Amino acid sequence: MNKSLLCFLSMKNWFKYVLSLLVCLLLGHANGQNLSDLSPFRIVTPSASFYELSKIGTGTPVLIIYFSPECDDCRSLTKALILHRNKWNKTKIIMVTNSSLDQLKRFERDFKLKGISNLVCGTEGKQMALQRHYLIKQFPFAGIFDWKGRLIKIYREIKTPGDWLQEVSLLQTMK
Q: Are the C-beta atoms of residues 133 and 39 closer than 8 Å to each other?
């Protein structure tokens, strides 16, 4: 075979390989498949203090709920979450919004969230780092992470916590 033809075929195969690799990487990112770990975050709580990923500690499953205080589905989800809170007692629940601190304070007061020891709610304001990282386009959103901070499952559309209540309950028994 001609050397120039071999060189051309090699270049053509190399180009196909690089192109297919780029397509796979882009599709993986678009599907959220690179979101395997709990993303670092910093939120402001209703008491105006900061809460960060490092405060969770190790050995605790985490449920992140991204919500909007005005969202009807988010409000229904919060009511159900409170109703079944004994099933979440070994899971750290982080409720995050990008709404104002005043809206968050009203939400916390309306649902009496302040007294729930394993629940923290806060706003990331206009940063929206979590919202961008997890490609959140609608509320409510939930991400379940195991005790090592590894992603178990993402729920992009939630009407009731029954969808993931079973999984979080199972997480509490794993280690």
A: yes
Nearest CA-CA partner of 70 in 38, 39, 98: 98
pLDDT value at residue 57: 76
Q: CA–CA separation, 97 vs 39, rounded Å?
A: 15
Q: Which residue has the tokens 């609608």?
A: 138
Q: Determine the length of the chain.
A: 175
| pLDDT tens sequence across 33-85 | 345 688 889 999 999 999 998 898 778 889 999 999 999 989 988 998 888 88
Q: Which domain holds residue 29?
A: 1-34
Residues 51, 115 within the same domain: yes
Check whether residue 55 and residue 5 sit in a common domain.
no
For 110-130, give one letter per residue: b (16+ CB within 10 A) or e. Answer: ebebeebeebbbbbbbeeebb
- Co-location of 29 and 46 in the same domain: no
Give me the residues paired with residue 91 across strands: none
27 and 57 housed in the same domain? no
More confident residue, 74 or 12: 74
- The pTM for the full model equals 0.75
